[in-house]
Amino acid sequence: MxxxxxxxxxxxxxxxxxxxxxxxxxxxxxxxxxxxxxxxDRPWAVEPTDDGWQVTWRSDTAVPLRxxxxxxxxxxxxxxxxxxxxxxxxxxxxxRDARVARASTVELGWATxxxxxxxxxxxxxxxxxxxxxxxxxxxxxxxxxxxxxxIRDYDLGDQAIELxxxxxxSELRGRLYLPNGAPGKRPVVLFLHGNHAFCYGTPTDGxxxxxxPCAEGTKPVPNHLGYDAMGRNLxxxxxxxxxxxxxxxxxxxxxxxxxxxxARGELVLASLDLMRRGSRGQGALSYLRDRLDFNRVGLMGHxxxxxxxxxxxxxxxxxxxxxxxxxxxxxxxxxxxRLTAPGVSTAVLLPYCDGDLADLQGQHLLDDTAFAGxxxxxxxxxxxxxxxxxxxxxxxxxxxxVSGGWDDWEGDxxxxxxxxxxxxxxxxTEQRNAAVAYLSAxxxxxxxxxxxxxxxxxxxxxxxxxAAKAVVxxxxxxxxxxxxxxxxxxxxxxxxxASGGAKLTVCAGLKPxxxxxxxxxxxxxxxxxxxxxxxxxxxxxxxxxxxxxPLIGNPPGTAVGHLTWTARTGRAKFAxxxxxxxVRRYDALTMRMSPTHR
Length: 598
Prior knowledge:
Elements: E1 10-11, E2 44-49, E3 52-58, E4 70-74, E5 77-81, E6 83-84, E7 90-95, E8 106-110, H1 127-130, E9 149-155, E10 161-163, E11 168-170, E12 173-179, E13 186-192, E14 199-201, E15 218-220, H2 228-236, E16 240-244, H3 247-252, H4 261-279, E17 292-302, H5 304-316, E18 325-331, E19 345-351, H6 363-369, E20 380-385, H7 428-446, E21 472-477, E22 498-499, E23 502-508, E24 559-565, E25 571-572, E26 589-590
Parallel strand pairs: 1-26, 13-16, 13-17, 17-18, 18-19, 19-20
Antiparallel strand pairs: 2-3, 3-7, 4-5, 4-8, 6-7, 9-12, 10-11, 12-16, 14-15, 20-21, 22-25, 23-24
C-alpha cells in the first residue's frame, strides 16, 4: 500500500471551466403548516415603521424547523430573513422596500430555495448516475471492528450550562459509545446534529412563551440518537464516540443574529470539557478515567451542526489548553458565516438530492479554505453523494421518528435525477451505510493515521464495499507540503498562456447577481469585480460556488478559469515555477473541471 506521501497529487488549478458543481433545482418542503386567515382572508400583514415596513406572516400550526433559514417573500421577491415567534407560528421581518406596501402576496420561504421548479437534464438518469465505478478497497471501513460496544447515556439537565453566545442556558446530554477492552487512552470523536424539532408530544399549556425547556407534557426530541450506526462502527474500531444533544440551541438560536452557530461551538467544547473532567476521574463521567486521548480528536457535524463544529475548531485555537482536533467531517453543512478551517483535515459530504439546503452551500467551505493557509498541512476533500437527501443521515429526522421526520426531497414521482422512481435514489439504509463507510474511513485516516483509506478521498476513484450502490464523486486538495500548484486559475492569466484558437480568462460569480437576502445597507460585492461573471444562465441553487449567504449577503465568490476554443489546435500551456521543474516526487497530475454554462 502506498504511503500518504506517495498519494500526493500534482495540482493544476482550481478549474478549467466556468462551473464546478451543478445541483438540481427541484426540492420539497417539510409538511406545510396551514396559514392563519385574517379578516382580509390572508395570513399576512404589512405595517409602516419609522424607517420602513414590518411584514408579518402567520400560520395556525407550528412551522417545522429546518436547517435552512426562513425568509419572507413578497410577490416572488425575498424581502428579508424572518424572525420566528417562540411558538413557531408567526414570522416577521423589516424592510425599506416600499413595494411591500402594495404586495399582493406574502409567503414564508427558505433562503436557499430556488425560484423555479426546473428539472435536471435527463442525462442524470444514465448509467454513470446509478452505477458506481472504480476499484473497491480491500479493507471495508464500514465493517464492524474487533471491540464490543458499550453504550452509556448521560444527562445533566435541560439547563446545565450557560452558553455566552446563546445568552441562555443549554442542556448537557449525550450518548457515549465505548470500545470494551480497548487498551490505553483512546481517540475521541464527537457528533453534533443540526436544526430540527426540539420537543414532541402534546403540550398541556399550548406552548406558552417559554420555548426551552420543553413545555409540560412534551419531551425533548432525541436528535443526538440518530447517528447510532456511525457511533457503533467507530467504537468497534477503538474510538470513544459521543453524540451530543443541542435542542436548546436549535430553538433559542433562532432569536440571535448568527442563528446559534457560535453557541453550537461553545456546546461542543463544553461537552469535551465534561469528558476531560471524566478522564481525570471527576464529575458525572468519572468512569472515563484514563481512557481518553484528547490529542486525537475528530468532530462530525450535520447541517447546522457542520457549521457548529467548524466554529468549535476555531474557538479551540484560542484556548490555553486546546484539544488536538485532527479532522472535521461535515455532512450537508450550512456555511452561512462563510468560515474557513485551515490546519484541520476536512471532508465535506454533499448530498446531491438535498431538499433542505438546496444550494449545497457546504461547497463554500472547500472553496474558501483550499488556499487559505500557505503552509496548511491538512487535506480537504469534497464528496458529492448522488441520490442522497438531507435527512436520512439521521434516523430521528427520517420517517417513523417521534418528531415526524420526512424525505426532504419528496413530491417528485418522476424518474428524473432525484425523483422517487430514479433507481439512483438511495434508500434510508443505503444512504446511512454509505455515510458510515466514508465517516469511519475519514476519521481512521485523520485521527487514527490509517493511510489505507486515503484513496476514498484523494480523487483516485476508489470505493468502499459497504457503500454499495452509492455513487460518490470526489475532489481533493492535498496538504501544501505534498503538492505543487501549477496554476490556480483564480487570478489574472499570464499572456500567451492560451494559443491556437484557445482563450483562457478568469471569471467569478453569477450574472445577474443574487439578491441580498439580508438587506444590508452597504451590501458586500456579489462577485470579485476584477473578473466577469462565470454564467448568466444558472442561479445560485445550481451553482453552489456562487450562492449567497443568508447571514452576510454576497461576499466575493470563487474565481475559476474559463477556457474556450474555436479551433482544434487550441491549447493552454502552463509553465512550472523555477526550481520546481523536477516533478519525480509526485505521482499524479490533477485538475478540477466541468462543462461551462454561459
